């Protein structure tokens, strides 16, 4: 049984930093591209970032480029998201997901092509 679980997040003031982690079990972690998504209240899910199976390729949504960094440690079956210079509009529930394969589906598909999902972690940025 595949399990994906996020940790981290919380409350931070604008301009601050937070990090998220995601662990996956029940799958061969380094066979999957991994991604981060977010959904703010009343809004559609948005693709934040994706990293290929080796970590050699990374992709970001326009709204987080230059501020967020995705990384992975395949030895620990763990995905990370470092979020810097946070803005109130970054407030959302953040989800970790494993893609259906080794390459990243387009983030503009808002999650289509991702197979396994975590339950989400709340990130709140106060102004």
What would your notes on this structure say?
This protein is an all-beta fold. The protein contains no helices and 11 strands. The chain has strands spanning 3-8, 10-13, 18-25, 34-39, 46-51, 58-60, 68-73, 78-83, 92-99, 114-117, 121-126. A hairpin with a 6-residue loop joins strand 5 (46-51) and strand 6.
Provide tags for this entry.
mainly beta; four-stranded antiparallel beta sheet; 11 strands; globular
Per-chain topology:
Blueprint: E1 3-8, E2 10-13, E3 18-25, E4 34-39, E5 46-51, E6 58-60, E7 68-73, E8 78-83, E9 92-99, E10 114-117, E11 121-126
Parallel strand pairs: 2-11
Antiparallel strand pairs: 1-3, 3-8, 4-5, 4-9, 5-6, 7-8, 9-10, 9-11
Distance between the termini: 41 Å
The helix/strand order is EEEEEEEEEEE
**Mean pLDDT reading:** 97
What is the number of helices? 0
Name the poorly predicted regions: none
Task: Give the overall form.
Answer: globular
Q: Could you tell me the strand content as a percent range?
A: over 45%
Query: Major beta sheet, specifics?
Result: 7 strands, mixed
Determine Rg (CA atoms, Å).
13 Å
Q: Structural class of the helices, strands and pairings? A: mainly beta
How many DSSP E strands? 11
Helix content: under 10%
Please summarize what this structure is:
By secondary structure, the chain is mainly β. It contains no helices and eleven strands.
């Amino acid at each position: 049984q595949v399990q994906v679980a996020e940790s981290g997040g919380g409350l931070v003031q604008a301009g601050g930093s937070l990090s998220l982690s995601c662990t996956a079990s029940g799958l061969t972690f380094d066979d999957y591209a991994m991604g981060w998504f977010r959904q703010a209240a009343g809004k559609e899910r948005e693709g934040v970032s994706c990293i290929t199976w080796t970590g050699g390729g990374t992709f970001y949504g326009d709204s987080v480029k230059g501020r967020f960094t995705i990384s992975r440690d395949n030895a620990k079956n763990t995905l990370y998201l470092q979020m810097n210079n946070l803005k109130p509009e970054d407030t959302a529930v953040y989800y970790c997901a494993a893609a259906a394969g080794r390459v990243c589906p387009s983030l503009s598909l808002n999650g289509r092509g991702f197979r396994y999902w975590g339950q989400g972690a709340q990130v709140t940025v106060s102004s």
